[in-house]
């Protein structure tokens, strides 16, 4: 898989590109009050390549989480692939296609799960757009249908660039076979979030908050998937970054509170610390 990603990246870098970038990141996460997980690390590489009216974005992610044994028999290891293709139709519209593949999960029944997404963006004004993306995730024992509606508004106050984003997610679970992952989950979920991003003279600041319960959700514009049976009811995030020549260094802290559904263990707190490095060309 690593050789395939390298080949794709080399192919795209050889084309005529505009404002593209490559990315690497590392994440440490800690679980409090969990009866299954202790802490873990995640490593990822990716790229965002723009060629004419097309944009190709992909990422490969590897994770290793220390678990409590028992009840689990071994530590958790995951491999995930994220792909997104967008095309600008040049008449205020653009469409996007998403794909996610859980290449490996040695513990969960969601191993091998695949997500397909199709969306449409409409630029209402130069600084105001809306996007609707429909996702379908297939696992062996159940399916998840997710609808995302996003509104994004940009403005500038003196030298400060501001971007405000609101997101609404509706999820519908369809159980094919009775299983421990979905037996305590609701059939439907509705959650919403708001994001703020500030850019000033090479400095970046971001904040986000999500409210409302959700489980097995697609997050981060199709570049994060929650494929374990954890029902989150809130998330908060904050981040800072700095441009250094052609590089962007960012640090993010993300807090989440969830219930582990199989054993109905509430008030599990998840703390994520992420360090990201972009190279723009």
Task: Outline the secondary-structure elements.
Blueprint lengths: L1 H12 L7 E12 L4 E15 L2 E14 L8 E13 L4 E13 L8 E12 L2 E11 L3 E16 L2 E16 L12 E13 L2 E12 L3 E2 L4 E2 L4 E15 L2 E14 L4 E16 L1
Antiparallel strand pairs: 1-2, 1-16, 2-3, 3-4, 4-5, 5-6, 6-7, 7-8, 8-9, 9-10, 10-11, 11-14, 12-13, 14-15, 15-16
Give me a quick take on this structure.
The chain starts with a helix and ends with a strand.
Description:
Helices cover 4% and strands 70% of the residues. It is built from 1 helix and 16 strands. The radius of gyration is 19 Å and the shape is globular. Residues 2-17 have low confidence and may be disordered.
The helix fraction, in percent, is: under 10%
Order of helices and strands: HEEEEEEEEEEEEEEEE
Class of secondary structure makeup: mainly beta
Report, as a whole number of angstroms, the end-to-end distance: 25 Å
According to DSSP, the number of beta strands is 16
Strand order of the largest sheet: 1-2-3-4-5-6-7-8-9-10-11-14-15-16
Q: Given the structure, what is the number of helices? A: 1
Main β-sheet description: 14 strands, antiparallel, barrel
Q: Unreliable stretches, pLDDT < 50, 5 or more residues?
A: 2-17
As a percent range, the share of strand residues is over 45%
- Average pLDDT rating: 93
